[in-house]
Amino acid sequence: MALIFCPDCGKEVSDSANNCPNCAYPLSKLKNQTPAYTPIYQNNQLVIAGYIAVFLSFFIFPIFFMIIGIVLGIINLTKGVTGHGILQIVLSLIFGILGTFLGILSILF
């Protein structure tokens, strides 16, 4: 049993009730409606982890974090977060290659 808020009076009501006990609003209307916005991906932890890996691939162990960023980007693609997944893959490649190149230059000079 979950509690929902009555859209008419704002009181908490059991989701199994047919009417609000406070104002008698028919809650069966809510059960038949589909939400206007349904988020595809609610857990943003993988998206945040992907961007952290992208950022670290430029500064610390570029090849290692580049691979992690690409893997997290692919995982985000499969979870339905297409924009973030593609951006993480592309940025991981760019930052990982630049970070590796700068690391080689710092060793040589």
Could you explain the architecture of this structure?
This protein has 109 residues and is mainly α. It has 2 domains: 3-32; 45-108. 60% of the residues lie in helices and 6% in strands. It has helices at residues 28-32, 45-59, 62-79, 82-108; strands spanning 3-5, 12-14. A two-stranded antiparallel ribbon has the order 1-2. β1 (3-5) and β2 form a beta hairpin. α3 (62-79) packs antiparallel against α4 (82-108). The longest helix is centred in the C-terminal third of the chain and has 27 residues, at 82-108. The N and C termini lie far apart (67 Å). The model has no long low-confidence stretch (mean pLDDT 82).
Attribute tags:
109 residues; mainly alpha; two-stranded antiparallel ribbon; 4 helices; 60% helix
Radius of gyration: 24 Å
DSSP strand count:
2
Q: How many separate helices?
A: 4
Strand % is 5-15%
- List the domain count as a whole number: 2
Oligomer: single chain
3D shape: rod-shaped
- In the predicted model, the low-confidence regions spanning at least 5 consecutive residues are none
Q: How can the largest sheet be summarized?
A: 2 strands, antiparallel
Order of helices and strands: EEHHHH
